[in-house]
Design goal:
Blueprint: H1 3-13, E1 18-23, E2 38-45, E3 48-51, E4 55-59, E5 63-67, E6 74-76, E7 83-89, E8 102-105, H2 108-116, H3 128-144, E9 152-154, H4 159-168, H5 178-184, H6 189-200, H7 204-222, H8 227-233, H9 239-250
Antiparallel strand pairs: 1-7, 2-5, 2-7, 3-4, 3-6, 4-9, 5-8
Length: 259
């Protein structure tokens, strides 16, 4: 698939109110891009990271993302194969749902409707049945949406904090204490925590906790590992502590996340 053509020419050039693109083996690009249409993404298989100027979002298996029109973004994935089902919509509504990039659980009725749109994938000609169906699908998005899932990390601006965040992504750092991490960058714990809060808006401990849970969702999506093995890989010695932290942040237990 010609990614540049898809992102920058095909979607914006199509003279339709809505457009469908299903791709069983999505090819990712590091290019930043925008669409004049809003984009609904459903992950059939694998995971996708969505990068914006201020945040990095994880979109796990069987979940949806809504990207408003005009939001600059790029995407990536650690998976070898990612199956995405994408729907693009012209947005004239003033509803809050359509204004924010959001990750959310896919209700069963919405999932089935997305599957049904596969018959129109990459169809550039206008089709009245497609138009009516997609119009109905768009109208239920705000109604079916319950709440956003906070699978997003702020992007650090301070180079010193960016270096710490890069270090935290190393699996070997999962077992380290904050004093050990601060020492790696010739910082005191107090200074590191102050800089972290100022730069990202959340505490160092809160950032690490969220980063671990997001990594856990990725591992559960891709590797088919047990909850116990995932908990250990992201730095938890107790499965119950991991499960309780997971639930406190995301509102579901690890085993229920991908159901």
């Amino acid at each position: 698939m010609d990614k540049a053509r898809f992102c920058h020419l095909t979607v914006d050039a199509v003279d339709k109110e809505a457009y469908v693109w299903h791709e069983a083996n999505w090819k990712f690009s590091e290019e930043w891009h925008t669409h004049h249409m809003g984009q609904l993404i459903y992950v059939e298989k694998g995971v996708q990271y969505l990068h914006t100027e201020n945040r990095t979002y994880l979109l796990p298996t069987h979940h949806c993302a809504w990207i408003p029109p005009g939001v600059a973004h790029r995407s990536s994935s650690p998976a070898n194969q990612v199956y995405l089902r994408c729907l693009f919509f012209t947005v004239n509504e003033e509803l809050d749902f359509f204004k924010e990039l959001t990750i959310f659980h896919t209700p069963k009725v919405l999932r089935e409707m997305i599957f049904f749109t596969e018959q129109w994938s990459r169809l550039e000609e206008k089709d009245p049945v497609e138009f009516d169906f997609l119009k109905g699908l768009k109208s239920i998005l705000p109604l079916s949406f319950k709440q956003a899932i906070p699978l997003a990390l702020p992007v650090p601006r301070n180079p010193r904090i960016a270096d710490v965040v890069s270090y935290l992504s190393d699996p070997l750092s999962a077992q380290l204490k904050s004093a050990e991490i601060a020492a790696q960058f010739n910082l005191s714990v107090r200074t590191m925590e102050r800089l972290f809060k100022k730069d990202t808006g959340i505490t160092f401990a809160g950032y690490v906790k969220l980063m671990k849970i997001i990594k856990a969702v990725e591992l559960l999506s891709l590797d088919g590992e047990s909850v116990k093995s995932v908990a250990y890989r992201v730095g938890y010695e107790s499965v119950s502590t991991f499960s309780n932290t997971f639930y406190a942040l995301l509102g579901v237990r690890p085993l229920d996340m991908l159901a």
